[in-house]
Amino acid sequence: MPSSTGLPNRVIPVLALAAFVLVWLLNLGVVQPNRIVAGTGYGLFDATGWFGAGTVSSLLLVVVVLATKPIRNRFWVLSFLLTAALMSLPLLLEVFALRKLPADSAYARIGIGAGFWCLAFFLALMLLETLSQLKASRRVQLSVVLLVAAGWWLCAAREGLSSLSLIREYANRADQFSQALTVHLSLSLGAVAISAVLAFGLALAMVRRERLRRPLLGLVSFMQTIPSLALFGLLIAPLGALSAAFPALQALGIRGIGWAPALLALIAYSLLPMVRNTYVALMEVPEAVVDAGRGMGMSERQVFLQVKLPVALPVIIEGVRITTIQAIGLTAVAALIGAGGFGTFIFQGLGQAAMDLVLLGALPTVCLALAADAILSALKFQETPR
Amino acid sequence: MRLWLTPVIWIASLCALTALLPAMAPLFSWVEGGTDNLIYTRDSFYTLLQSHIWLVLASATMGTLVAVSAGIFVTRPAGRDFMPLVSQIASIGQTVPPVAVLALAVPAMGFGEKPTLFALVLYGLLPILRNTLAGLGGINPAVLDSAKGMGMSSVQVLFKVELPLAGRVILAGIRTSVTINIATAAIGSTIGARTLGDPVIAGLVNGNTAYVLQGAILIGFLALATDSLFEALERAWARVFSARAHKA
């Protein structure tokens, strides 16, 4: 049992108060006559009536009471309550659609307002605080995230939310969406895989020849300093010239714009975290462990494969984690040079001032990054020798 | 002052390039043959550079103020309850790609400089916050005890012991934040901020590689000049501080 179980928690009431103020002040949702026009906003009470406003307010009140009173197992109750609230949050929008969506217009749709996002954000923060008070294990944390995701998924699939602008944008582009997912994943994971191989070689070279360390690390950190848009831009001219000079390259699809410069730039960016972590990991294997391996009669090759590599693995995986998150974000930027992926939706949406198309690109990008973080952190944790 | 030589060279070449790029039309005709529009003229490069630097400087100042005060608050007895949550926000927040933050600022605040600045401040304060926590948390408790034993008040301990000791780590956080923000501000062109990203975006839309190159070169030089400036700053900080430690 955590030591602070009996004491009143001060963090959750502050968060609950902030959520309460924001959800009453800001618009919960927007009714738009079509996909471009801004539409009219509705606050919590106008949007969902006594029922919705009462549920939200009393939920926040109960949370504050639970957090401050010395009730047994209150953090477990809180975590159940907050998980359930987050899972069913989209139902608020369904109530809103039921009450305010004009039935006679085929183009009318509802948009998500800032109040809804703030409520979701603060509920998530309260859940985070509750889980850390419980010292919840990784498995519990993961199941909470999966439950919330499943809840939102089920809500999104319901008929009641089919008028949600975000879902309409998706329904219009279901094919493009799965294509964007494929392109996004293959570009970022491809870059990570290629740079992992390159970085491993470079790190090994640095371990063997100390002289190489400074120039190599200098070079990769130089590349990391150049902003993404600039690097993408700088690659256009040379690759364009190459492709014009060699028709064979053009047949492969290598041109000044498209996947080729994107992949090259992504690899260049991935090298620094990968090389640095691999090098540090290999150098920091304790000498005593290596000696023990040698003492057991292992050859140098065996020492490397069976002793050094397993000990270094968690730090190497940490490098892969940083690189993957970074590559997923940069692939979104690469859409500007025609590489595809979720960035296409973001920049198309910005160009057309269609905000829900922007969301359709930005939200999956964020989800991919968070998922990569969760998976690779779990892997690192599993590989850490105990 | 050999320390400052490298940043001065970088900054001088950035200024020279900004002034001379318009005169380099013949050079760019080599890349982009078929057109007369060889030099980006919608805004002068100087205006774009100025506005880019202003965005990054303003966001770095605000981000540093917010992040350092938040970091100080959660390491005091009064705010210690908030420590676990704030450090988790700092690390989970950095998982979110900066482009996504930029894009999500538009539905909330519309187009222009304002959402760009908002996104830059919000995203930029995370690395500073993380390093402030690491810097203040990494101080040997014995040092703090001896400072208190010398009769220093908690405010004196903060300003004379904790912040100088954590300063180099905080400065490294500001460097990371500024590096990210120079890149993100360039992408801010797509949401209507006036930055050095403008020529790149205009060039990509119109298929004019000369524009793309001009923007990209200036952004690259700005990033490298800033980075070398921070390198010198970090060394200067270490030098000043170790000199003071020797005297004491």
Mean pLDDT of chain A: 88
Strand order of the largest sheet of chain A: 2-1-3
Instruction: Return the string of H and E elements of chain B.
Output: HHHHHHHHHH
CATH-defined superfamily of the largest domain in chain A? MetI-like
Organism (chain B): Marinobacter salexigens
Transmembrane segments (chain B): 53-74, 86-111, 117-144, 165-191, 211-230
Pfam families (chain B): BPD_transp_1
Keywords (chain B): Membrane, Transmembrane, Transmembrane helix, Transport
Question: What's a quick, concise take on this entry?
Answer:
Chain A is an all-alpha fold and 386 residues long.
Secondary-structure map:
The complex is a heterodimer of chains A (386) and B (248).
Chain A (H helix, E strand, L loop, with lengths): L10 H15 L3 E4 L7 E3 L1 H25 L5 H14 L2 H11 L8 E4 L1 H21 L3 H20 L7 H8 L1 H35 L4 H13 L2 H18 L1 H5 L7 H25 L3 H9 L4 H35 L8 H10 L2 H29 L3
Antiparallel strand pairs in A: 1-2, 1-3
Helix pairs in contact in A: 1-2, 1-5, 2-3, 3-5, 3-6, 7-16, 8-12, 8-14, 9-12, 10-12, 12-14, 13-14, 14-16, 15-16
Chain B lengths: L4 H16 L4 H5 L15 H31 L7 H11 L4 H12 L3 H25 L3 H9 L4 H34 L9 H10 L2 H39 L1
Helix pairs in contact in B: 1-10, 3-6, 3-8, 4-6, 5-6, 6-8, 7-8, 8-10, 9-10
